[in-house]
Amino acid sequence: MRYGMVRQYLLKTRTITLFLGLFLLDARTAFAQHGPAALGGSAQGVYLVFPFENAGASPRLDWLGEGLEELTIQYLTGAGQQVYSHAARTAELERNGLPFSAKVSRASMLRIAQDLDADFVVFGSFNSDGKSLTVEARVLRLDPATLLPAVHESEALASLMELQTKVAWQLLTTNDRGYTRTLAEFSKAQRPLRLDAFEHYIRGLLATEDEARLRELREASRLEPNWPDVDFALGETYVSRNDCNAALPYFSHVPKANQHYVEAVFATGVCRLQSNQPDRAEEMFTSLQSMLSANGDGAQSGLSGAELPEILNNLAIAKARQGKNPSAETDLRHASDLDPDEDDYPFNLGLLKLRDNDFAAAAGYFREASERRPENAEDRALLIHALEKAGKKTDAEEEREAANEALGPNALPAIRMDPKNEAANLMVRVKTELDTTALRFEIEAPPAAAASGAAAGATETTASHLRRGRQELAAGQLDAAEAEFRSALQADSTSPAAHRGLGEVDRRRGKVDDAVKEFQASLDTRDSAVVRTMLARLYLEQKKTEQARTEVQRALKLAPNYVEAKQLLEHLQNSKPNGGAQ
After folding, report:
1. Residue whose C-alpha is closest to residue 27's, from 15, 40, 14
2. How far apart (Å, rounded) are the C-alpha atoms in residues 362 and 357?
3. What CATH number matches the domain at 2-192, 1.10.287.470, 3.40.50.10610, 3.50.50.60, 3.30.1300.10?
4. pTM over cut 0.90
């Protein structure tokens, strides 16, 4: 029922309707009428791959849906293409309130591809009688919108790897007429894998219980002992069980050239913090930050020239635990500037000032944190604590009354600081996950295009402008980000992602009214639970509580499981019904 509602709404938007129409076209007819030109020229861009649909095969082969997705990702990546990972796709599903195991309609595929600024969508189906396997796959180009002819391959089920190698190669050569590698050359670029090891790996990723996941991944590792993807998955699983000692050896096996290297180093640093080894944690986060700021090793992992606030936050914590407070404060200030919607960074700054007994400054940071996330009771409790320690009893009491009104009685946690402020170490907020989606790809125009404005215009796409805009935004380069988003609007005047990007730029500049207009323009073209939640927060800043409540309720109709919206609605439900409404 829920997914049907999402699909029904998507069908109402012009952009999605256009794409759905293309899905219904017979691409072979278009190809016959217009020839290769109908498919465009050499394709440069980012692929987003979805699980293949089980079109009648036994349920025991359901794992092949994600298996074919993962193989396609690995083979395209091995051939030098830019491809979103399985984790990036599932994270975007979660942001849209959809479980990772949900069967996604084509409308939802397109919505997710647009949200991720992908250029090409790969989807397909498979069928098997238990001995043979037939796979059909297709590529949808988003700009210009074109559905390419289907690719079909059949082999013995035992030849799954060879079959999907052919499928991936055909998808690539059909989409990119400039691709010159032969099938044999394409195959040599791929990592050979045992089928049984691959099956255990996919079943491990799909397992919902830790023990089953570990059992499958360990078997995959036994059969393929030098497979970095399995090592990373095992490391992640042990971290989720708070077993860093078991996780660290697996993370150390992930090489720099692997797509998971950045996450593996980050997780290693987190483990060092949790193991009270701040010097080794500082070493990990410093090396990671330096690597991402360079053009060499960072590019190998798909991230380069960027600073990530999560890394700066954890680096600051590592420094603070060694008494390097001034340097830690600098890092936290920078992280706070890079991500002005996150309350953890000013919260940690407040803790630093508490340790220095600078209570007035601490109160200022905790106030900033509570303004960023009004529903966070801990932010407000520390604000009141700092005000009391600063001797501002009246201000503290006013904040307490406001918190009780907004969050309800007894919502504030008790704050008890010992003379050594050791409790502050326990409350410090370590970032345990690294969000690299917006920075996954470094997009560069070909040399020939850079030399000619006309040529550059011919190779640019709306999605490439949007990706660069997100990169610049994440790096705090607001002017450059705005330029990219406006270039995207020149290519597509109704681009919802471009309007959303401009709204984020305006929000960071403090231009709340302009940000609201941009988010509304984004919603005029395509509805989004994420954008509606962002708009709700802006309305809260404007003290328009009822409008904020309306937006977040609409967000939850679209995505009932969207955590950000649920948390914000809970906060609003505890507010006065008409409090602050205009």
Report:
1. 40
2. 8
3. 3.40.50.10610
4. no
